Amino acid sequence: MYYLGIDFGTSGARACVIDPAGQVVSERQVRHPAVADAMLPQSWLATLQQLILAIPAEVRGQIAALAIDGTSSTVLLCDKRLEPVLAPLWYHDTRAQTEVAAIVARAGKHFTASATSSLAKLLWLRKQPGSEGAHILLHQSDWLSARLCGIAVSDYHNALKLAYDPEQSAYPDWLLALPESALLPPVTEPGSLVAPVTDTASRQLGLPSSCLVRAGTTDSLAATMAAGPLQEGEGVTSLGSTLALKLLSPSRIEDGQCGVYSHKYGHNWLVGGASNTGGAVLAHYFDSDDLQALSERINPDISSPLDYYPLLRKGERFPTNDPQLEPRITPIPDSPVEFLHGLLEGIARIEASGYHLFAKLGAPTLKHVVSTGGGSYNRVYRRIRQRILGVPVTRAIHTEAAYGTALLAADKIWGQT
Protein backbone atom coordinates (compact mmCIF):
# COMPACT_ATOMS: atom_id res chain seq x y z
CA MET A 1 0.00 0.00 0.00
CA TYR A 2 1.43 3.36 -1.10
CA TYR A 3 0.46 7.04 -1.12
CA LEU A 4 1.02 9.49 -3.96
CA GLY A 5 1.62 13.23 -3.65
CA ILE A 6 1.76 15.45 -6.73
CA ASP A 7 3.11 19.00 -6.65
CA PHE A 8 2.23 21.44 -9.42
CA GLY A 9 4.72 24.25 -8.90
CA THR A 10 5.49 27.25 -11.06
CA SER A 11 8.37 25.75 -13.04
CA GLY A 12 7.41 22.08 -13.10
CA ALA A 13 5.51 19.23 -11.49
CA ARG A 14 6.75 16.46 -9.20
CA ALA A 15 5.38 13.15 -7.98
CA CYS A 16 6.38 11.42 -4.75
CA VAL A 17 5.21 7.99 -3.58
CA ILE A 18 5.68 6.98 0.05
CA ASP A 19 4.98 3.82 2.03
CA PRO A 20 2.98 3.74 5.31
CA ALA A 21 6.16 4.52 7.26
CA GLY A 22 6.74 7.71 5.26
CA GLN A 23 9.69 6.33 3.30
CA VAL A 24 10.03 7.47 -0.31
CA VAL A 25 9.37 4.67 -2.78
CA SER A 26 9.42 6.58 -6.08
CA GLU A 27 9.96 10.16 -7.26
CA ARG A 28 9.51 11.73 -10.67
CA GLN A 29 9.53 15.27 -12.05
CA VAL A 30 8.60 17.06 -15.28
CA ARG A 31 9.22 20.65 -16.34
CA HIS A 32 6.27 22.63 -17.64
CA PRO A 33 6.48 23.24 -21.39
CA ALA A 34 6.01 26.75 -22.71
CA VAL A 35 2.45 26.96 -24.02
CA ALA A 36 -0.13 29.68 -24.59
CA ASP A 37 -2.34 30.39 -21.59
CA ALA A 38 -5.38 28.98 -23.36
CA MET A 39 -3.55 25.65 -23.68
CA LEU A 40 -2.49 25.43 -20.01
CA PRO A 41 -5.28 23.06 -18.85
CA GLN A 42 -4.45 20.52 -21.55
CA SER A 43 -0.75 20.89 -20.72
CA TRP A 44 -1.42 20.33 -17.00
CA LEU A 45 -3.44 17.21 -17.75
CA ALA A 46 -0.70 15.87 -20.02
CA THR A 47 1.89 16.52 -17.30
CA LEU A 48 -0.30 14.81 -14.70
CA GLN A 49 -0.64 11.76 -16.91
CA GLN A 50 3.07 11.72 -17.71
CA LEU A 51 4.00 11.90 -14.03
CA ILE A 52 1.72 9.10 -12.93
CA LEU A 53 2.64 6.82 -15.81
CA ALA A 54 6.35 7.35 -15.03
CA ILE A 55 5.82 5.63 -11.67
CA PRO A 56 6.68 1.91 -11.94
CA ALA A 57 3.56 -0.14 -12.73
CA GLU A 58 4.03 -2.38 -9.69
CA VAL A 59 3.97 0.72 -7.46
CA ARG A 60 1.08 2.42 -9.27
CA GLY A 61 -1.02 -0.68 -8.80
CA GLN A 62 -0.74 -0.37 -5.01
CA ILE A 63 -1.49 3.34 -4.55
CA ALA A 64 -4.23 3.59 -1.93
CA ALA A 65 -4.70 7.36 -2.04
CA LEU A 66 -3.37 10.48 -3.72
CA ALA A 67 -3.48 14.24 -3.24
CA ILE A 68 -2.42 17.19 -5.39
CA ASP A 69 -1.09 20.62 -4.47
CA GLY A 70 -0.97 23.59 -6.81
CA THR A 71 0.15 27.18 -6.99
CA SER A 72 -1.96 29.35 -4.71
CA SER A 73 -4.45 31.62 -6.53
CA THR A 74 -3.95 30.01 -9.93
CA VAL A 75 -7.58 29.64 -11.01
CA LEU A 76 -9.88 28.37 -13.76
CA LEU A 77 -13.51 29.19 -14.49
CA CYS A 78 -15.24 25.97 -15.58
CA ASP A 79 -18.55 24.76 -16.94
CA LYS A 80 -20.64 21.91 -15.53
CA ARG A 81 -18.45 19.35 -17.32
CA LEU A 82 -15.36 20.88 -15.62
CA GLU A 83 -14.11 22.22 -18.93
CA PRO A 84 -12.46 25.66 -18.69
CA VAL A 85 -14.53 28.37 -20.34
CA LEU A 86 -11.64 30.86 -20.33
CA ALA A 87 -7.86 30.67 -20.10
CA PRO A 88 -6.61 30.16 -16.52
CA LEU A 89 -5.13 33.04 -14.56
CA TRP A 90 -1.73 32.44 -12.95
CA TYR A 91 -1.07 33.24 -9.30
CA HIS A 92 0.84 36.43 -10.20
CA ASP A 93 -1.71 37.79 -12.71
CA THR A 94 -2.57 41.39 -11.79
CA ARG A 95 -5.31 42.26 -14.30
CA ALA A 96 -8.00 42.40 -11.61
CA GLN A 97 -7.03 45.89 -10.44
CA THR A 98 -10.53 47.37 -10.72
CA GLU A 99 -12.04 44.46 -8.79
CA VAL A 100 -9.92 45.25 -5.73
CA ALA A 101 -12.01 48.36 -5.13
CA ALA A 102 -15.17 46.24 -5.14
CA ILE A 103 -13.71 43.98 -2.44
CA VAL A 104 -12.61 46.95 -0.33
CA ALA A 105 -16.11 48.42 -0.61
CA ARG A 106 -17.56 45.22 0.86
CA ALA A 107 -14.88 44.04 3.27
CA GLY A 108 -12.47 46.90 3.87
CA LYS A 109 -8.75 46.14 3.87
CA HIS A 110 -9.29 42.40 3.63
CA PHE A 111 -6.28 40.35 2.54
CA THR A 112 -8.18 39.30 -0.59
CA ALA A 113 -8.24 42.97 -1.64
CA SER A 114 -5.35 42.29 -3.98
CA ALA A 115 -5.37 41.85 -7.74
CA THR A 116 -3.61 38.50 -7.34
CA SER A 117 -6.19 36.96 -4.97
CA SER A 118 -8.51 34.21 -6.18
CA LEU A 119 -11.50 36.37 -5.33
CA ALA A 120 -10.35 39.35 -7.38
CA LYS A 121 -9.67 37.01 -10.28
CA LEU A 122 -13.17 35.52 -9.98
CA LEU A 123 -14.74 38.98 -10.19
CA TRP A 124 -12.56 39.83 -13.19
CA LEU A 125 -13.20 36.56 -15.03
CA ARG A 126 -16.95 36.91 -14.62
CA LYS A 127 -16.86 40.11 -16.65
CA GLN A 128 -15.07 38.56 -19.62
CA PRO A 129 -16.78 37.45 -22.83
CA GLY A 130 -17.14 33.68 -22.75
CA SER A 131 -17.87 33.43 -19.04
CA GLU A 132 -21.60 33.05 -19.60
CA GLY A 133 -21.44 29.25 -19.37
CA ALA A 134 -19.41 29.24 -16.17
CA HIS A 135 -20.55 26.96 -13.36
CA ILE A 136 -17.70 26.97 -10.84
CA LEU A 137 -14.32 28.55 -10.07
CA LEU A 138 -11.58 26.07 -9.21
CA HIS A 139 -7.95 26.37 -8.18
CA GLN A 140 -5.29 24.49 -10.09
CA SER A 141 -5.15 21.57 -7.64
CA ASP A 142 -8.96 21.51 -7.26
CA TRP A 143 -9.38 21.12 -10.99
CA LEU A 144 -6.71 18.46 -11.45
CA SER A 145 -8.15 16.43 -8.57
CA ALA A 146 -11.62 16.77 -10.05
CA ARG A 147 -10.40 15.43 -13.39
CA LEU A 148 -9.27 12.29 -11.60
CA CYS A 149 -12.35 11.65 -9.47
CA GLY A 150 -15.16 13.63 -11.09
CA ILE A 151 -15.97 15.68 -7.97
CA ALA A 152 -15.17 19.41 -7.81
CA VAL A 153 -14.26 20.64 -4.34
CA SER A 154 -11.68 23.02 -2.89
CA ASP A 155 -9.79 22.91 0.41
CA TYR A 156 -9.59 25.63 3.02
CA HIS A 157 -5.93 26.35 2.25
CA ASN A 158 -6.62 27.20 -1.39
CA ALA A 159 -10.00 28.76 -0.62
CA LEU A 160 -8.49 31.22 1.87
CA LYS A 161 -7.70 33.49 -1.10
CA LEU A 162 -11.43 33.32 -1.94
CA ALA A 163 -12.13 34.81 1.52
CA TYR A 164 -13.25 31.47 2.96
CA ASP A 165 -13.12 31.61 6.76
CA PRO A 166 -11.66 28.37 8.20
CA GLU A 167 -12.66 29.37 11.74
CA GLN A 168 -16.31 29.62 10.78
CA SER A 169 -16.09 26.90 8.09
CA ALA A 170 -17.98 29.20 5.75
CA TYR A 171 -17.70 31.99 3.23
CA PRO A 172 -18.45 35.39 4.83
CA ASP A 173 -21.90 36.94 4.42
CA TRP A 174 -20.53 39.92 2.48
CA LEU A 175 -19.17 37.53 -0.15
CA LEU A 176 -22.32 35.40 -0.33
CA ALA A 177 -24.28 38.58 -1.08
CA LEU A 178 -22.38 39.00 -4.37
CA PRO A 179 -23.89 37.44 -7.53
CA GLU A 180 -20.51 35.81 -8.26
CA SER A 181 -20.91 33.71 -5.10
CA ALA A 182 -22.88 31.21 -7.17
CA LEU A 183 -19.53 30.20 -8.70
CA LEU A 184 -17.75 29.53 -5.40
CA PRO A 185 -16.60 25.92 -4.89
CA PRO A 186 -17.60 23.83 -1.87
CA VAL A 187 -14.76 23.66 0.65
CA THR A 188 -13.44 20.86 2.82
CA GLU A 189 -10.42 20.16 5.03
CA PRO A 190 -7.12 19.47 3.26
CA GLY A 191 -6.58 15.72 3.14
CA SER A 192 -10.24 14.82 3.55
CA LEU A 193 -11.72 12.16 1.32
CA VAL A 194 -13.28 13.41 -1.92
CA ALA A 195 -13.95 10.26 -4.00
CA PRO A 196 -12.23 7.26 -5.60
CA VAL A 197 -10.66 7.76 -9.02
CA THR A 198 -13.02 7.34 -11.93
CA ASP A 199 -13.03 4.16 -13.98
CA THR A 200 -11.48 6.11 -16.85
CA ALA A 201 -8.63 7.44 -14.70
CA SER A 202 -8.04 3.98 -13.24
CA ARG A 203 -7.87 2.38 -16.66
CA GLN A 204 -5.74 5.06 -18.36
CA LEU A 205 -3.29 5.57 -15.49
CA GLY A 206 -2.97 2.08 -14.09
CA LEU A 207 -4.31 3.12 -10.68
CA PRO A 208 -6.43 0.76 -8.56
CA SER A 209 -10.15 1.47 -8.84
CA SER A 210 -10.10 1.75 -5.04
CA CYS A 211 -7.50 4.58 -5.09
CA LEU A 212 -8.90 7.54 -3.14
CA VAL A 213 -8.49 11.17 -4.11
CA ARG A 214 -8.07 13.42 -1.08
CA ALA A 215 -8.53 17.19 -0.99
CA GLY A 216 -5.28 18.98 -1.78
CA THR A 217 -3.55 22.14 -0.65
CA THR A 218 -1.30 24.92 -1.95
CA ASP A 219 2.30 24.32 -2.97
CA SER A 220 3.73 26.38 -0.10
CA LEU A 221 1.55 24.60 2.49
CA ALA A 222 2.64 21.25 1.06
CA ALA A 223 6.27 22.34 1.43
CA THR A 224 5.53 23.23 5.06
CA MET A 225 4.05 19.78 5.67
CA ALA A 226 7.15 18.22 4.13
CA ALA A 227 9.37 20.15 6.55
CA GLY A 228 8.02 18.14 9.48
CA PRO A 229 6.48 19.00 12.87
CA LEU A 230 6.93 22.62 13.91
CA GLN A 231 7.19 24.37 17.25
CA GLU A 232 5.75 27.81 18.04
CA GLY A 233 8.02 30.48 16.57
CA GLU A 234 9.53 28.20 13.95
CA GLY A 235 9.33 29.36 10.37
CA VAL A 236 9.37 27.54 7.07
CA THR A 237 10.76 29.33 4.03
CA SER A 238 9.94 27.78 0.68
CA LEU A 239 12.68 28.72 -1.78
CA GLY A 240 11.16 27.94 -5.14
CA SER A 241 10.41 30.13 -8.11
CA THR A 242 8.88 32.52 -5.59
CA LEU A 243 9.54 33.09 -1.89
CA ALA A 244 6.88 31.88 0.58
CA LEU A 245 7.12 32.27 4.36
CA LYS A 246 5.13 30.46 7.07
CA LEU A 247 5.41 30.86 10.86
CA LEU A 248 3.66 28.65 13.41
CA SER A 249 1.52 30.74 15.73
CA PRO A 250 -1.12 29.96 18.38
CA SER A 251 -3.25 32.84 17.07
CA ARG A 252 -4.59 33.93 13.71
CA ILE A 253 -2.97 37.06 12.27
CA GLU A 254 -4.03 38.92 9.14
CA ASP A 255 -3.25 42.26 7.55
CA GLY A 256 -4.61 42.85 4.08
CA GLN A 257 -2.50 45.94 3.53
CA CYS A 258 0.71 43.92 3.91
CA GLY A 259 -0.36 40.69 2.21
CA VAL A 260 -0.34 38.74 5.50
CA TYR A 261 -2.85 35.95 6.15
CA SER A 262 -3.13 32.85 8.34
CA HIS A 263 -3.83 29.27 7.33
CA LYS A 264 -5.50 26.93 9.76
CA TYR A 265 -2.98 24.22 10.64
CA GLY A 266 -4.34 21.63 13.04
CA HIS A 267 -5.02 23.46 16.31
CA ASN A 268 -2.62 26.28 15.40
CA TRP A 269 -2.16 28.77 12.60
CA LEU A 270 0.48 29.32 9.97
CA VAL A 271 1.00 33.04 9.51
CA GLY A 272 2.04 33.44 5.92
CA GLY A 273 3.04 35.70 3.10
CA ALA A 274 4.38 35.17 -0.41
CA SER A 275 6.72 37.46 -2.31
CA ASN A 276 7.20 37.61 -6.07
CA THR A 277 10.96 37.45 -5.58
CA GLY A 278 12.72 34.09 -5.60
CA GLY A 279 14.41 31.52 -7.77
CA ALA A 280 12.70 32.64 -10.97
CA VAL A 281 14.68 35.88 -10.80
CA LEU A 282 17.95 33.98 -10.34
CA ALA A 283 17.07 31.60 -13.19
CA HIS A 284 16.50 34.60 -15.46
CA TYR A 285 20.18 35.56 -15.14
CA PHE A 286 21.98 32.27 -14.40
CA ASP A 287 21.59 28.61 -15.27
CA SER A 288 21.72 26.05 -12.46
CA ASP A 289 25.38 25.13 -13.01
CA ASP A 290 26.48 28.77 -12.96
CA LEU A 291 24.44 29.42 -9.83
CA GLN A 292 26.22 26.67 -7.98
CA ALA A 293 29.70 27.48 -9.25
CA LEU A 294 29.45 31.25 -8.76
CA SER A 295 27.87 31.03 -5.32
CA GLU A 296 30.84 28.99 -4.08
CA ARG A 297 33.01 32.01 -4.83
CA ILE A 298 30.95 34.30 -2.57
CA ASN A 299 32.05 35.02 0.98
CA PRO A 300 28.74 34.66 2.85
CA ASP A 301 30.07 36.48 5.92
CA ILE A 302 30.55 39.77 4.05
CA SER A 303 27.65 42.03 3.09
CA SER A 304 27.13 43.01 -0.53
CA PRO A 305 27.13 46.77 -1.20
CA LEU A 306 24.34 46.31 -3.76
CA ASP A 307 20.84 47.33 -2.67
CA TYR A 308 18.61 45.11 -4.82
CA TYR A 309 14.90 44.29 -4.68
CA PRO A 310 14.92 41.37 -7.15
CA LEU A 311 11.70 41.03 -9.17
CA LEU A 312 11.11 39.84 -12.72
CA ARG A 313 8.36 42.37 -13.35
CA LYS A 314 6.55 45.23 -11.68
CA GLY A 315 4.41 44.32 -8.66
CA GLU A 316 4.87 42.81 -5.22
CA ARG A 317 2.52 40.97 -2.83
CA PHE A 318 4.46 40.74 0.43
CA PRO A 319 6.01 42.07 2.67
CA THR A 320 4.92 45.15 0.70
CA ASN A 321 1.60 44.74 -1.08
CA ASP A 322 2.17 47.09 -4.00
CA PRO A 323 1.18 46.14 -7.58
CA GLN A 324 3.19 49.14 -8.83
CA LEU A 325 6.48 48.31 -7.09
CA GLU A 326 9.29 48.35 -9.63
CA PRO A 327 12.18 45.84 -9.60
CA ARG A 328 15.47 47.24 -8.31
CA ILE A 329 18.38 45.42 -9.94
CA THR A 330 20.84 48.17 -10.77
CA PRO A 331 23.66 48.80 -11.07
CA ILE A 332 24.80 45.47 -12.49
CA PRO A 333 28.51 44.98 -11.76
CA ASP A 334 30.91 43.49 -14.28
CA SER A 335 31.61 40.56 -11.96
CA PRO A 336 28.89 37.85 -12.10
CA VAL A 337 29.94 36.75 -8.60
CA GLU A 338 29.24 40.23 -7.21
CA PHE A 339 25.96 40.38 -9.14
CA LEU A 340 24.78 37.03 -7.76
CA HIS A 341 25.89 38.06 -4.26
CA GLY A 342 23.69 41.16 -4.52
CA LEU A 343 20.69 39.17 -5.75
CA LEU A 344 20.99 36.57 -2.99
CA GLU A 345 21.26 39.21 -0.30
CA GLY A 346 18.33 41.13 -1.76
CA ILE A 347 16.12 38.04 -1.55
CA ALA A 348 17.38 37.30 1.97
CA ARG A 349 16.54 40.84 3.10
CA ILE A 350 13.00 40.43 1.78
CA GLU A 351 12.74 37.18 3.74
CA ALA A 352 13.94 38.91 6.92
CA SER A 353 11.50 41.78 6.37
CA GLY A 354 8.68 39.27 6.11
CA TYR A 355 9.46 37.59 9.42
CA HIS A 356 9.96 40.98 11.10
CA LEU A 357 6.53 42.00 9.82
CA PHE A 358 4.93 38.88 11.32
CA ALA A 359 6.41 39.78 14.73
CA LYS A 360 5.27 43.39 14.41
CA LEU A 361 1.71 42.17 13.80
CA GLY A 362 1.77 39.99 16.94
CA ALA A 363 3.17 36.64 15.81
CA PRO A 364 5.75 34.82 17.96
CA THR A 365 9.35 35.97 17.62
CA LEU A 366 11.25 33.95 15.04
CA LYS A 367 13.42 31.26 16.63
CA HIS A 368 14.50 29.02 13.76
CA VAL A 369 13.93 28.71 10.02
CA VAL A 370 13.56 25.45 8.13
CA SER A 371 14.20 25.74 4.39
CA THR A 372 12.45 23.81 1.65
CA GLY A 373 12.46 23.95 -2.13
CA GLY A 374 15.32 23.95 -4.61
CA GLY A 375 17.07 26.99 -3.10
CA SER A 376 17.48 25.21 0.23
CA TYR A 377 20.34 23.11 -1.17
CA ASN A 378 22.69 26.06 -1.67
CA ARG A 379 25.09 26.11 1.28
CA VAL A 380 26.36 29.66 0.69
CA TYR A 381 22.86 31.07 0.32
CA ARG A 382 21.86 29.39 3.58
CA ARG A 383 24.77 31.08 5.41
CA ILE A 384 23.87 34.46 3.92
CA ARG A 385 20.30 34.04 5.11
CA GLN A 386 21.39 32.95 8.59
CA ARG A 387 23.52 36.09 8.92
CA ILE A 388 20.69 38.37 7.80
CA LEU A 389 17.88 36.59 9.68
CA GLY A 390 19.88 36.29 12.91
CA VAL A 391 18.54 32.81 13.76
CA PRO A 392 19.62 29.26 12.89
CA VAL A 393 18.69 28.23 9.35
CA THR A 394 18.54 24.54 8.50
CA ARG A 395 17.40 22.50 5.52
CA ALA A 396 14.41 20.22 5.91
CA ILE A 397 15.06 16.50 5.56
CA HIS A 398 12.33 16.45 2.95
CA THR A 399 12.50 19.63 0.90
CA GLU A 400 9.96 18.99 -1.84
CA ALA A 401 6.29 19.91 -1.64
CA ALA A 402 5.32 16.59 -3.27
CA TYR A 403 6.49 14.75 -0.15
CA GLY A 404 4.22 16.90 2.01
CA THR A 405 1.30 16.20 -0.31
CA ALA A 406 2.06 12.47 -0.10
CA LEU A 407 1.79 12.78 3.69
CA LEU A 408 -1.56 14.49 3.14
CA ALA A 409 -2.67 11.56 0.99
CA ALA A 410 -1.58 9.18 3.75
CA ASP A 411 -3.46 11.22 6.41
CA LYS A 412 -0.20 11.90 8.28
CA ILE A 413 -0.38 15.61 9.07
CA TRP A 414 -1.65 17.72 11.95
CA GLY A 415 0.70 15.82 14.30
CA GLN A 416 -0.74 12.41 13.42
CA THR A 417 1.49 9.34 13.14
Question: Which key terms come to mind for this protein?
Answer:
6-stranded mixed beta sheet; alpha/beta; 7-stranded mixed beta sheet; 13 helices; 417 residues
What does the model show?
It is a single chain. By secondary structure, this protein is an alpha/beta fold. Helices cover 31% and strands 20% of the residues. The strands form 4 sheets. Strands 1, 2, 3, 4, 9, 10 and 11 form a 7-stranded mixed β-sheet that branches. A 6-stranded mixed β-sheet has the order 14-15-13-12-16-17. A two-stranded antiparallel ribbon has the order 5-6. Helix 3 packs across helix 4 (118-126), helix 8 (219-227) packs across helix 13 (401-409) and helix 11 packs across helix 12. The protein is globular and about 60 Å long. The protein starts with a strand and ends in an 8-residue tail after the last helix. The model has no long low-confidence stretch (mean pLDDT 94).
